[in-house]
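Anyone up for a design puzzle?
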């Protein structure tokens, strides 16, 4: 393997594919980058927490985010879900990573399943 890097979206997660289609419909082909799925999930999680709290107070949002588990992610491997709690602030695991292998300076293989 010449080089590899980790990214947070591939093509096998249906949530990523749905987000990509919606985003590219307004922003053009190949406009989705690695950060967009994580930002999208963060916005949806914040919205869910604010609705549950009935408030945008920071403490109330935090407390509601702590209650979120198995939130279907727009990044990572198929079926990857985010779960939060006290002491679990980023909600992710290694299943949220996708590795891309490069050969000759070009992506040659996307590993959509985490390889320990």
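Challenge accepted. My sequence:
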């Amino acid at each position: 393997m010449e080089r590899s890097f980790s990214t947070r979206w591939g093509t096998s997660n249906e949530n990523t594919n749905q987000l990509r289609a919606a985003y590219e419909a307004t922003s053009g082909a190949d406009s989705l980058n690695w950060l967009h799925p994580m930002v999208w999930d963060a916005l949806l999680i914040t919205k869910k927490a604010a609705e549950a709290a009935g408030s945008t107070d920071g403490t109330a949002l935090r407390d509601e985010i702590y209650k979120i588990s198995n939130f279907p992610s727009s990044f990572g491997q198929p079926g990857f879900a985010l779960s939060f709690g006290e002491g679990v602030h980023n909600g992710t695991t290694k299943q949220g990573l996708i590795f891309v292998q490069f050969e000759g300076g070009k992506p040659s293989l996307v590993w959509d399943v985490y390889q320990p």
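A detail worth pointing out: The chain has three helices and five strands.
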